[in-house]
């Protein structure tokens, strides 16, 4: 896009420059044409001056119509200035002829230039016309002859042959360029000079030949939007000051503006090259500048994949990427904290701070699966505080809550930190023991828990004796959560039925036997009076 924009800007600049250069070239052409116009003007006026001086001479010598032929012949230099000079009286009849006095001349009284001379009483340059004598295109310079009283008695007419080689060579010499051509049109549109001789004296319309008609638009100007023949051309023109002619030039545009083609090529090429180089440099620079962003992306992916933790965000770079990385670290930390809090709330019993049933339901199957893989046993102790309802009823719900908190604390203190304690509901707790080495260890666990509850509970200003019944189930063979819980429940039921404040151990799958045996094996505890003892 940058490349397109640069080439576009360059192109627009070049178009503007080209338009300026066109204008400049056209101005140059007009100024060259001004010189040509002045030259032509002077040339025609010089010839006009020659006839004027002869007229002054005739007036000085007080000549008459009869003397005109001799007058002309006394100026042989006229032959160089004009193709011929003839004279007419005021009626337009022929009276003298420089080249051939026997030439038969027509009456010219109806010719516009003749009438104009009589009207203005001064020298007139005619519009181009075809000579009836020579049949060639000519322009006439007409000069009145005055007698001593100032009356016109004859008119000298000098013919300028537009096809004579000297005139064509003279005009061609005014060209400043090899290409194109120079032409002259009279101000009524009649072609005075053109390299195509057949066009002389024609008056082509703008539609037919726009290049020839363009100069009629004003005293001077140029156009670069004209088709000359089939080729686009630059046409510039300049009107003569004294003669009603406009001298013009037509150049093919491709020649006139040839230098612009190489300017276009070089400028666009340079713009493209420099932009491409700048683009490559910019791309490299951006790549270097964005390297920390790539690094940040790698860190994010690594954290997402669990290969590293969010502390990888906590970098000490001072740049924007360092700021971004540390902002990500803060965001991730707070989200992790929120997530941890949520998880803790979802898996913790609010009152006692132990795990809750949800956590236990997830944990027990996992522990059983581990045991299945390692071939070791798992034991679950199912605890229920004895006659807890009467504690609530007697001391109030708040004291009941405090008993639950204290009971939970003692329970967690009685087991290893690797054992998992959870409160299922109300006054029911469970403990999961992993890597248990048989029922003997299960009995030790039961003893430890009962022992932990021996000391009186001092809560809410009351000292209470709190006991619990414990049903312990231990896996013999691989089993599931439901089975082991049911087995522990049977054991608990047995203890409750036997009078509370004791424990029983069941092996999953052999519940009744194990339950009875557990209580029997510990007569002192079985003999302990069940129920709640108040201190
Ligand atoms: N203070 C308190 N009491 C609770 C809470 N949850 C349940 N309880 C009460 O705990 C008592 C549980 O009684 P049970 O286990 O059914 O019966 P028990 O009185 O313990 O009798 P046994 O279990 O047969 O020894 C009920 O009265 C419940 O209302 C609790 O969060 N706080």
Automatic annotation (TrEMBL):
Transmembrane segments: 263-286
NCBIfam families: GGDEF
Keyword Membrane: yes
Domain GGDEF stretches: 376-508
GO cellular component: plasma membrane
Topology of this chain in the membrane: Multi-pass membrane protein
Name this protein carries in UniProt: Diguanylate cyclase
Entry keywords, A to Z: Cell membrane, Membrane, Transmembrane, Transmembrane helix
Xref: InterPro entries: dCache_1, DGC-Regulatory_Protein, GGDEF_dom, Nucleotide_cyclase, Rev_trsase/Diguanyl_cyclase, Sensor-like_sf
Subcellular location: Cell membrane
Top-level taxonomy: Bacteria, Pseudomonadati, Pseudomonadota, Betaproteobacteria, Burkholderiales
A GO term, aspect molecular function: catalytic activity
